[in-house]
């Protein structure tokens, strides 16, 4: 099975939790994309009705429109029944790294408003420690004096061997701009960052930081698709 087929299996499994009448958070990324299209398909077939979707990014907003999911927002629906979204990393306690697609702020706002947060991943996303995969830990920051903020973030995690890199568009090397008009600094760690909650609090205390990509104690259900099949685990 290809990685995309595994993502699709996980996404379709998650959509089994969707009931007619629900207000749904719609995730962002190549895994959540399958869930959004599946929901549209079931609406089309009349197997689901009275669904309201709250997208976690402009790109998901467009996709949801294209598959016919009625859309609204958090102002109109401050509490959601269920959100289905992918993750970049999942640790054994269901803590997540998200945001490598750049949508972490709206995802965290929507996911924080949901009664149930179903994470859908292929098995390659499972890690022992967050930030341990040597891949990016995204932090959304304001564009004003971004070098200053990036440097402060690096110094904050000096003992973890942290390096921060401004995320740039591959094409023209211009700074990547989020849906909210902010920049993203990707943090790379050589060593374990230790207490995640302390790291989260320290990052959020830094003026200039908007939000970071650690989603701690937020997921309620984890669906993992692997070569041996798909598993569903509740917190
Ligand atoms: O950027 C994001 O937050 C995405 O949801 C990411 O965490 C998962 O994206 P993927 O499903 O394309 O791997």
Shape: globular
Distance between the termini: 27 Å
Order of helices and strands: HEHEHEEEHEEHEEHEEEE
Calculate the mean pLDDT score and round it. 97
Helix content: 25-40%
Major β-sheet, in short? 6 strands, mixed
Ligands, deduplicated: D-4-phosphoerythronic acid
Alpha-beta classification: alpha/beta
Number of strands: 13
Structure description:
With 235 residues, the chain is an alpha/beta fold. The chain is 27% helix and 23% strand. The chain has 6 helices and 13 strands. It has helices spanning 3-15, 32-44, 58-66, 104-111, 146-156, 196-205; strands at 23-26, 52-55, 82-85, 89-90, 96-97, 117-122, 137-141, 163-166, 183-188, 209-212, 214-215, 221-226, 229-234. The strands form 3 sheets. A 6-stranded mixed sheet has the order 2-1-3-6-12-13, sandwiched between helices. The protein has a 4-stranded antiparallel sheet with strand order 8-9-7-10, with helices on one face. A 3-stranded antiparallel sheet has the order 4-5-11, with no helix packed on it. A hairpin with a 5-residue loop joins strand 4 and strand 5 (96-97). Helix 1 (3-15) packs across helix 2 (32-44). The longest helix is centred in the first third of the chain and has 13 residues, at 3-15. The radius of gyration is 18 Å and the shape is globular. 45% of the residues are buried. The mean pLDDT is 97. It binds D-4-phosphoerythronic acid. The site of D-4-phosphoerythronic acid (DER) has 17 residues, from helix 4. D-4-phosphoerythronic acid (DER) binds at residues 27-32, 85-88, 98-101, 103-104, 107. It is an enzyme of class 5 (isomerase). Its EC number is 5.3.1.6. This is ribose-5-phosphate isomerase. It catalyses: aldehydo-D-ribose 5-phosphate = D-ribulose 5-phosphate. GO terms for molecular function: ribose-5-phosphate isomerase activity.
